[in-house]
Amino acid sequence: MKNIVILISGGGSNMAAIVRVAQQQDWAGRHGARVAAVLSNKADAGGLAIAREHGIPTQVLDHKAYASREDFDAALARAIDAHAPAVVVLAGFMRILTPGFVQHFAGRLVNIHPSLLPAFPGLHTHQRAIDAGCRVAGATVHLVTAELDAGPILAQAAVPVLPGDTAQTLAARVLTQEHVIYPRAVLELVLQK
Length: 193
Ligand code: GAR
What we know:
By secondary structure, this protein is of the alpha/beta class. It has helices spanning 13-24, 27-31, 47-53, 69-81, 99-104, 125-131, 167-191; strands spanning 2-8, 33-40, 58-60, 85-90, 109-113, 136-143, 153-160. The chain has a single domain (2-113, 141-156, 179-191), classed as Formyl transferase, N-terminal domain (Rossmann fold), CATH 3.40.50. Glycinamide ribonucleotide binds next to helix 1, strand 5 and helix 7.
């Protein structure tokens, strides 16, 4: 079985979308792939309950319990490696990862970012797109490399920026498209493994 490990920090709607599509499309039966575990750096991440409802093992590693970023990332890598994953999915995992961590999972570490990269890496992407007067915004699925939000692009979706949009209304419009492109991109990557 090809294992997928998903890392979250919050609501986990992208994780839930991947889990839902994997079940609907029977990834286990058709592709020998399954979401093996959901890991969070926050104990109160809403997505943990969703994962448990689907019978997926969860684990919390609180980054504040570690002395350094390197220590946390080493513990996180060990927890992930316990599932021998084909693909590791960052789904709203709001941590900057060390080069050693990224190198360890190179080629099988994927992220979704809420902008049309290379525009707007980093935080507050929707407000920045509105402030820049963009007429389109969107989301990008990309392989993770040492440089923040800069790895090879696997998939993108665009949505209009509408008059009167706030960061919240734009984020919601983008998020619905994230839920479409991320499960598809994850499956494509898994099938290459
Ligand atoms: C998503 O919009 C994702 O693109 C973004 O966080 C949200 C998580 O939502 N990721 C980043 O900003 C990464 N820097 P979710 O927890 O409901 O999937």
